[in-house]
Amino acid sequence: MQRQIFTPDHEAFRQTVRTFLAKEVEPHYAQWERDGIVSRDAWLAAGRQGLLGLAVPEEYGGGGEPDFRYAAVLAEEFARAGAPGLAIGLHNDVIGPYLTSLATDEQKQRWLPGFCTGERITAVAMTEPGAGSDLQGIRTTAEDRGDHWLLNGAKTFISNGILADLVVVVARTTPEGGAKGLSLLVVERGAPGFARGRNLDKVGQKSQDTAELFFDDVRVPKENLLGELHGAFVHLMTNLAQERLTIAVSAAAAAEHVLDLTTAYVKERQAFGRPLAKLQHVRFQIAEMATECAVTRAFVDRCIADHAAGTLDAAHASMAKYWATELQVRVTDRCLQLHGGYGYMNEQPVARAYTDARVQTIYGGTTEIMKEIIGRSLLS
Questions:
Q1: At what angle are helices 232-268 and 314-339 packed, to 10 degrees?
Q2: 128 an active-site residue?
Q3: What letter would DSSP give residue 155?
Q4: What is the DSSP track for 129-142?
Q5: What does the pLDDT look like over 6-30, one tens digit per residue?
Q6: Residue spans of alpha helices (H) in the chain
């Protein structure tokens, strides 16, 4: 089906992204996977190509383009390339809005130019060893010491945790319980008492550095408070729809891509003296997956259009995230099965797609959390 949401300008940008991936990412990706981290040079190259800070105002070196459809193109092409390790979507679509909407003019001058060049890689630190989706369980504290905050605690599963130069930390700034009393503090690379633990050994997305972070009496300047004091919960909730939609966009594109790979494979692979594609069971499997992908694409595209127009709500973003990521896992599993023994070999793209996909139903809010959000919207 012909997609209706993109203009010629968006498609021209798509070609730019594909050229960047072919030159700066794909030749190096296998090595990054072995290293467990991408090269900082790739971030700098992304900055030179104008892929960082798409929505950041031009005065700070950004693209000055708030149209989310450009971000969607970027997410789709990285998903089709099987290259989640270079976490530009996290940088642009999750952390970028915090800096552009919450930062003071002084903070923007300090942080945004490097954000757009790739010299300042970013991360957001919410999850703790004892607190995942439940922000009420956060134990990291920031004590007001007059001219600074004294930050203590630990975070885990932090994407970009090793490379990050700026970490937006969610900390408790009052002893009050629940989600109240949480604030966002920006910790910069090199701050005394700020330490990085292991680059965690994950099932998939090996080149995407994911780390433990530790804060031991870290003195955070008062001018590094991001947004309102005790306002973190509202700030975090405001941007979750975009984060979840970005994941859904990448999931839908990844499912389509692995299906394309598998369709080509079954046409060529011989079994019982004829191509696999001649077997009715295989044709039915491909037909079912193609239909599911097409239906998902229609819904996700509608969500992209709604978000670009400023009308996407939390429930529909959650629907998109829940459905598209579960589809990605389901389609990738079935495609690996159709590859047979070859699908279990790491040298095959479908094998990496299989392990990379699994976390999609977990981060950004688990499938179970998405269902809870949807259910509450319908029943409360």
A1: 30
A2: no
A3: E
A4: TTBSS-GGG---EE
A5: 999 999 999 999 999 999 999 999 9
A6: 8-20, 29-35, 40-48, 68-80, 88-89, 96-102, 105-117, 232-268, 280-308, 314-339, 349-357, 367-379
The pLDDT tens digits of the residues spanning 93-126 come to 999 999 999 999 999 999 999 999 999 999 999 9
* Residues 6+ away with beta carbon under 8 Å from 192: 218, 219
Rounded Cα distance, 134 and 15, in Å: 40
Nearby residues of 293 by Cβ (< 8 Å), 6 or more positions away: 252, 255, 256, 259, 327, 331
R_g (Cα) of the chain, nearest Å: 21
Residue 51, classed as helix, strand or coil, is coil
In sequence order, which ranges of 149-279 are alpha helices (DSSP H)? Answer: 232-268
**Lookup result for tokens 């975070």:** 155
DSSP-assigned letters across all residues of 286-324: HHHHHHHHHHHHHHHHHHHHHHHTT---HHHHHHHHHHH
Q: How far apart are CA 62 and CA 48, in angstroms?
A: 11
Across the chain, what does the average pLDDT equal?
96
Tell me the per-residue pLDDT of 212-243, one tens digit each, with 9 for 90 and over: 999 999 999 999 999 999 999 999 988 899 99
Q: How many residues does the chain have?
A: 380
CB-based burial of residue 21 (10 Å sphere; 0-12 exposed, 13-18 middle, 19+ buried)?
Answer: buried
Prediction pTM value: 0.96
pLDDT tens digits for range 128-169: 998 877 778 899 999 999 999 999 999 999 999 999 999 999
Among the listed residues 188, 243, 347, 368, the single catalytic one is 243
